[in-house]
Design brief:
Pfam families: Chorismate_synt (PF01264)
Strand order of the largest sheet: 1-2-3-7-4
Number of helices: 7
Distance between the termini: 27 Å
Protein name: Chorismate synthase
Order of helices and strands: EEEHEEEEHHEHEHEHEEEEEH
Radius of gyration: 21 Å
Structural class: alpha+beta
EC number: 4.2.3.5
Largest sheet: 5 strands, antiparallel
Family: Belongs to the chorismate synthase family.
Catalytic activity: 5-O-(1-carboxyvinyl)-3-phosphoshikimate = chorismate + phosphate
Oligomer: single chain
């Protein structure tokens, strides 16, 4: 479904090449100060055309707040945000109803929805939908006044030296190929006690949102998979003081599903953009066999470039939801 959350509930709607994409946010406390311009810095971080390896599709991404706001404050009613889609090349997707792109949702969506799904730009499965998630995350941050976020791209295609990122992206563009990437998100100042045991742990709620981002294939907290290669004596976070600060942070700021007062630290793995300019042999339903497909349109050489702020938004939304449950 397209709705998530408990105390703070989100519903995404729209398609990549429809007239709008948007989000309804229910549960924002009445009286929260809010102006559309406050969302623009995070939205700008997500926009195409800002990086050498990002799509040239450039939307204005000016949010229209059409409900839940009066005189600069939330009313307690559901907040609805709209983003107009204008820079469209829908003809680039005419063949995709029958000639399915590798590693895309084209075939799976056609089966699930009986062929009535919108294939243009990936429809509801497109990364375009994350514009609404970023806007919701920016609003969630207003409910976390003591929390700060630090987010960075740590790897592109296995390369971890940021000085080489532009060179690598330029080479990918030249070849018509793409690469995956890893993003690190750190949340500082999260109150101790946020989170619930078992099914609504900080990890569970955050991971649910993070894995909803198109292209995300892995999430790890703290030391993550590296912890599986260690002994307990090497991995344990020894407590340094009565406030719960630890000498190390291998658990990523979470114990028993609950924030322990240290930085919450996670990493998100994005797969390579599946839309590439190189010809690929893939199934064509009209022919009943595989045939070469060259994907047109405008695409990212590395979706992690613009995915970083989306991952940050997902963590903010998870923490805001869990924090409202404690209020």
């Amino acid at each position: 479904m397209n709705t998530i959350g408990t105390a703070l509930r989100l519903t995404l709607f729209g398609e990549s090449h429809g007239p709008y994409v948007g989000v309804v946010i229910d549960g924002i406390p009445a009286g929260t100060p809010l102006a559309a311009k406050e969302l623009l810095p995070d939205l700008a971080r997500r926009q195409g055309g800002r990086h050498a390896g990002s799509t040239p599709r450039a939307e204005q991404d000016c949010p229209q707040i059409v409900s839940g706001l009066l005189n600069g404050h939330t009313t307690g009613a559901p907040l609805t945000l709209l983003f107009a889609n204008g820079n469209l090349h829908s003809q680039d997707y005419d063949t995709l109803r029958h000639h399915y792109r590798p590693s895309h949702a084209d075939l799976a969506a056609a089966v699930k929805y009986g062929g009535y799904n919108d294939p243009r730009g990936g429809g509801m499965f497109s990364g375009r939908m994350t514009v609404a998630l970023v806007a919701a995350g920016a609003i969630a941050k207003k409910l976390l006044p003591d929390v700060s976020f630090a987010t960075r791209l740590t790897e592109i295609g296995g390369e971890s030296d940021p000085a080489r990122f532009d060179e690598l992206l330029a080479e990918l563009r030249r070849r018509g190929d793409s690469a995956g990437g890893i993003v690190e998100v750190v949340a500082r100042g999260v109150a101790r006690g946020v989170g619930e045991p078992f099914f609504d742990s900080v990890e569970s709620v955050a991971a649910h949102l993070l894995f909803s981002i198109p292209g995300v294939k892995g999430v790890e907290f703290g030391a993550g998979f590296e912890a599986a290669r260690r002994t307990g004596s090497a991995n344990n976070d020894r407590i340094a003081d009565g406030s719960g600060h630890t000498f190390t942070n291998n658990d990523g700021g979470i114990n028993g599903g609950i924030a322990n007062g240290n930085d919450i630290r996670l990493r998100v793995a994005f797969k390579p953009t599946p839309s590439i300019a190189l010809p690929q042999e893939t199934f064509d339903a009209r022919r009943g066999t595989t045939a070469p497909l060259t994907v047109g349109g405008r695409h990212d050489a590395c979706i992690a470039l613009r995915g970083a702020v989306v991952a940050e938004a997902a963590l903010a939304l998870a923490l805001a939801d869990l924090s409202l449950r404690r209020a």
